[in-house]
Amino acid sequence: MPVSSILRSSVFELPLPAIARYMRMGRQVPEGELAARVEVLREQAVSVLNPARIWRRVEMPIPVESASLARHMEGCHAAYLVCGTIGAGIDALQRRVAVTSGADALIVQAIGAAAVEVWMDAVESEIQKELKPGEERIARFSPGYGDFPLDYQRTLLAILDTPRKIGVSLTDTLLMVPSKSVSAIIGVRMAKRYSPQTMVVASV
Predict the structure, then answer these.
(1) Would you say the pTM of this structure is higher than 0.90?
(2) Which residue has the higher pLDDT, 3 or 104?
């Protein structure tokens, strides 16, 4: 039985340009009063984040009917089942600020979306360190993409035991709780340019 890898952290960077993207500002960044308000809310958001993530490596094939997933995973011999969350604090903060300001609620929503994306990118970087010589990872692929059934989240979260391990569960309508959570599959394949003959072993 493969052993799951778990990593928790309370500190990671959340750059302003990443937040601006989820505020639908494109390459622009907030300025003036808006920038000041985003900074205030960002500080509040970071103080309540409780990021956690878990992954497990499995061998192919993955028993699910999905042409989209099959195309995406073509050439892969293994995969990582992954789930990450930034915790329930951001949901509570969004509800709290929404009482007095809809605009603030939208900013907090953007901050949360940016935070979980940064967090999931960090997952990929950690997985990269676990790969065997010659292996490479491909982009993550989540239930709900293409014809990959959204209800596969039930299977994925059950395999990872996310309710117990990192506090992520599903509602009856397949909404993730906390809301700023992501589940995905990351394929692993041999790099096209890799050849064992190119490896150099140092002698002692």
Answers:
(1) no
(2) 104
Say if 203 falls within a structural domain: no
User: Which is more confidently placed, 8 or 94?
Assistant: 94
State the CATH number of the domain containing residue 44.
3.40.109.40
- Give the total number of structural domains in the chain: 1
Residue 199 has pLDDT above 70, yes or no: no
Residue 197: is its pLDDT beyond 90?
A: no
In a domain, 185, yes or no: yes
Residue 127 dihedral angles phi and psi, to the nearest 5°: -65, -35
Which amino acid would we find at residue 203? S
Tell me: pLDDT of 1 over 70: no
Q: Domain of 64?
A: 5-191
